[in-house]
Design goal:
- By secondary structure, this protein is mostly beta strands.
- About 0% of the residues lie in helices and about 35% in strands.
- The chain has a four-stranded antiparallel beta sheet, with no helix packed on it. The protein has a four-stranded antiparallel beta sheet with strand order 7-8-9-10, with no helix packed on it.
- A hairpin with a 4-residue loop joins strand 7 and strand 8.
- The radius of gyration is 17 Å and the shape is globular.
- The termini are far apart.
- The model has no long low-confidence stretch (mean pLDDT about 85).
Length: about 150
């Protein structure tokens, strides 16, 4: 069994239409069975679908046709990230399965053939606010960045 990502137009996503909203399109999500955990992040016209196993699929939704079904990703790669997060600083943060956070500029995302460009920085350790002791970053299942806080 293969899962999919249902897409609605923004105008349909309102409280009055919550049970009546019509799906705009359906994106194919291979290698994602019933227990698969998917995290979605939009960066411009790109939709990143990160699976808990590290597989990443990228969809270009700029030319998505209404009623389209089983739309394949434009890029995919195994072992990339379990979570991507577009932060308020305009950078894309990716949680790597090896227990590191890699940071990317987003200006090349639409034109590259890989899922992600070369990282501009990496975080492998952290310090809890108010403490001096460095700790190694272990694999985690969530990521959020706000100002200077991860």
């Amino acid at each position: 069994m293969e899962n999919r990502i249902n897409v609605w137009s923004q105008s349909q996503v309102v409280a009055e239409k919550s049970l009546k909203a019509r799906k705009y399109a359906r994106l194919s999500l291979p290698k994602c069975e019933r227990s698969c955990v998917v995290r979605l992040e939009t960066v411009g016209n790109l939709l990143y679908a990160n699976l808990s196993n590290g597989n990443t699929f990228v969809y270009d939704v700029s030319n998505l046709q209404q009623g389209a079904s089983d739309v394949a990703s434009t890029r995919q790669q195994a072992g990339i990230a379990s979570v991507t997060h577009l932060a308020s600083d305009g950078l894309l943060y990716a949680l790597r399965s090896a227990g590191a956070i890699e940071i990317y500029a987003i200006d090349q995302l639409a034109t590259i053939s890989n899922v992600l460009p070369t990282a501009i920085d990496s975080v492998k350790s952290y310090r809890t606010q108010g403490q001096d002791q460095l700790q190694s970053l272990t694999q985690t299942s969530d990521l959020s960045v706000y100002e200077n806080n991860v």
